[in-house]
From TrEMBL:
Family annotation (Pfam families): PNK3P, zf-PARP
Superkingdom in the source lineage: Eukaryota
Positions of the PARP-type domain: 7-89
Places the protein is found: Nucleus
Record keywords, A-Z: DNA-binding, Metal-binding, Nucleus, Repeat, Zinc, Zinc-finger
Organism field: Ficus carica (Common fig)
GO molecular function: ATP-dependent polydeoxyribonucleotide 5'-hydroxyl-kinase activity; double-stranded DNA binding; polynucleotide 3'-phosphatase activity; zinc ion binding
UniProt cross-references to PANTHER family, sorted A to Z: BIFUNCTIONAL POLYNUCLEOTIDE PHOSPHATASE/KINASE, BIFUNCTIONAL POLYNUCLEOTIDE PHOSPHATASE_KINASE
Gene Ontology BP terms: DNA repair
The keyword Oxidoreductase is assigned to this record: no
Protein name: PARP-type domain-containing protein
Length: 330
C-alpha cells in the first residue's frame, strides 16, 4: 500500500456518514471501511464506504489483517473482510487474464461481451452489507460456514470452490437428491441419479463453478420447528456435497410464494433474486458467460411436474435449461 493511503475498518458511531460509492447512508453501529489519504495541506481525508461497495483494486493489500482496526472487529466481520480481500485478489487476476485475451483478438472480445450476463442490461441492484449477514436465520442457529442474508441461507465458500465465468447451476430436491416431504433429517435423501458425482466432478475440473439454487419455504413456515427444518435442509446439502466430492456454492430461498397469502419473496424461484445475489456479490466480480452457463431443474411445467418454477427461473435469468433425466443421461 502506498504510504500516503491506508484502509481503516470500524463500526459507524452514528448515521451521519454516507457511502462514497452508492451515496446511501451508512447505518449507525454497522461496519464501514474508510480510505484515508492526505491532502496538499497535510490533513487526513477519509472516504467511507459500505464494505460491499469498497474497492480494494487500487490498494496493494497482502491480507485483511493489514486493515487498521481489523483486530477490534467482531469475528464474523473479520472473516467477511478476509473473504472480500481474497475475492478482490481473484477478481484482479481475472481482469489481468481478460486484458491479455483482449489484446489477442479485439473482434472476439466484442462478440463475447454481448454474451456476458452482467456487462449490460437492466438488473436490479441488491444492496448487500457485511453487517446484514447473520449466523442465525431468525431464531434458528446455522451450521458452520453457513450464513443468512434477508430470506436467503447460503454456503458461500465451500473448500476448493473457485469463482468462474462458467456457472453450472442446479435445483436440489427432485433434481440432485431424492427427498420426501414426509421424511425429515440430514440423512433422509438419496442421489437422484448415480451419474451425478462423476458429472459434477467433470464440470468442476472443466472450470465450472457449481451452484445450487433451492427453495425451502418450510424454514419460514415451521415457526415452532424452524431449527428442525434448517438442520434437515443444511444437513442434506452438506452430506450431498461430501458424497459428490466436489465444492458447491449453495443458496436456499426460505421465503414463501403468493399462494401463502403473503407478498412473494424476491429470492424464491421462479423470481431471479438468488441468481442476482450470486452474480453481484458472490462471484468475485467476474462476468458470467451465458453461452456456457446453464441451469438444471425438475420443475419444468410438464404434465406430472409439481410446478414450472425451475424453467421460469432459467428464463428470467436467461440461462439454457435442462431437465435432470435429460442432463444426467437417464
Amino acid at each position: 500500500m502506498a504510504p500516503s493511503t491506508r484502509i481503516v475498518a470500524e463500526y459507524a458511531k452514528s448515521s451521519r456518514s454516507s457511502c462514497k460509492k452508492c451515496s446511501k447512508t451508512i447505518d449507525a453501529k454497522s461496519l464501514r471501511l474508510g480510505s484515508i489519504s492526505r491532502d496538499a495541506r497535510g490533513f487526513d481525508i477519509t472516504k467511507w464506504h459500505h464494505p460491499a461497495c469498497f474497492s480494494f483494486a487500487s490498494e496493494s493489500l497482502a491480507s485483511a489483517q493489514e486493515i487498521a482496526g481489523f483486530d477490534s472487529l467482531k469475528s464474523p466481520d473479520q472473516e467477511a473482510l478476509k473473504e472480500l480481500v481474497d475475492a478482490s485478489d481473484k477478481a484482479l487476476e481475472e481482469v489481468d487474464k481478460k486484458e491479455e485475451d483482449e489484446e489477442k483478438d479485439p473482434e472476439e472480445r466484442k462478440t463475447k461481451k454481448a454474451k456476458l450476463s452482467n456487462s449490460e442490461g437492466k438488473v436490479p441492484d441488491i444492496v448487500f452489507s457485511i453487517s446484514d449477514v447473520k449466523n442465525k436465520y431468525k431464531d434458528a442457529t446455522l451450521a458452520p460456514k453457513w450464513k443468512a442474508f434477508q430470506t436467503v441461507i447460503f454456503l458461500e465458500r465451500d473448500d476448493g470452490l473457485r469463482d468462474s465465468s462458467k456457472i453450472a447451476a442446479f435445483d436440489f430436491d427432485g433434481c440432485l437428491a431424492k427427498t420426501s416431504v414426509k421424511r425429515v433429517g440430514a440423512d433422509a435423501w438419496s442421489l437422484m441419479y448415480p451419474s451425478i458425482p462423476d458429472k459434477l466432478q467433470s464440470l468442476y475440473n472443466d472450470g465450472y463453478k457449481l451452484v445450487i439454487f433451492t427453495n425451502e419455504s418450510n424454514i419460514d413456515r415451521w415457526k415452532n420447528k424452524r431449527q428442525v427444518a434448517v438442520d434437515s435442509k443444511i444437513g442434506r446439502l452438506n452430506n450431498f456435497i461430501k458424497t459428490v466430492k466436489a465444492p458447491v456454492q449453495v443458496f436456499i430461498a426460505c421465503g414463501v410464494g403468493k399462494s401463502d397469502g403473503q407478498a412473494e419473496d424476491p429470492f424464491r424461484k421462479p423470481k431471479p433474486g438468488m441468481w442476482h445475489l450470486m452474480e453481484q456479490h458472490f462471484n468475485s466480480g467476474i462476468s458470467i458467460d451465458m453461452d456456457q452457463s446453464f441451469y438444471v431443474g425438475d420443475a419444468a411445467g410438464r404434465e406430472n411436474d409439481h410446478s414450472d418454477a425451475d424453467i421460469k427461473f432459467a428464463q428470467a435469468v436467461g440461462l439454457k435449461f435442462h431437465v435432470p433425466d435429460e442432463y444426467f443421461g437417464m
